[in-house]
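Q: My labmate handed me this sequence with no annotations at all. I'd like to see what the chain might look like in three dimensions before we decide whether it's worth expressing. Could you predict it?
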Amino acid sequence: MSVTDAEAAVTNHSELRTVYREPKPRAAQKVLDHLDSHCRRFIEMSPFCVLSSTGSDGRADASPRGDPPGFVKVLDDRTLLIPDRPGNNQVDTLQNILKHPVVGLLFFVPGMNETLRVCGSAEIVTDDELLESQSVGGRAPISGLKITVKDAFLHCGRALIRSRLWDPEVQIDRSSYPTYGQVLAEQIAGADAEAIDRDEHNANREKLY
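A: Here is what I predict for the chain of 209 residues:
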């Protein structure tokens, strides 16, 4: 028997609750169906979030989104707008949303250990007037994600405390890990590491928006 076969797997809710005690009432009480003033302020301060989506085949995905603080615009207490900046045009998240519009968001604010979790439904919008408000350097995003909020709540800081995410002392020496181009050159037959790194450097300098 393999190690995997020997391990006990939790397969239903009853079994799960034999492992974990019931949550405190406030765990459910803190979940809002809208964005209150604290949620809105958190989003206004956030320069980075992770956006999760699911494809029609059930495969989950998570994608980083980042810009100056407040790049995710709060349209009202139940609606957000996220700009879609230039990338590799594979549009994995957008394709997922076309099939399965439910998304999750995790907002970070540098220096804060708490995070903000938001879930809702998304639609892809290309309205020029709406997107113009998210222009940077005179360049509006090609499209945006309009999120209708279903749930929002502040998540405790223990994960970030354990990880010491904001602690400069745990930052790695970047030379200890291969460059983006070096990694891809080992993963893609015939790829040129130096050419990839050069292209990325130019794109990061000239094509962020």
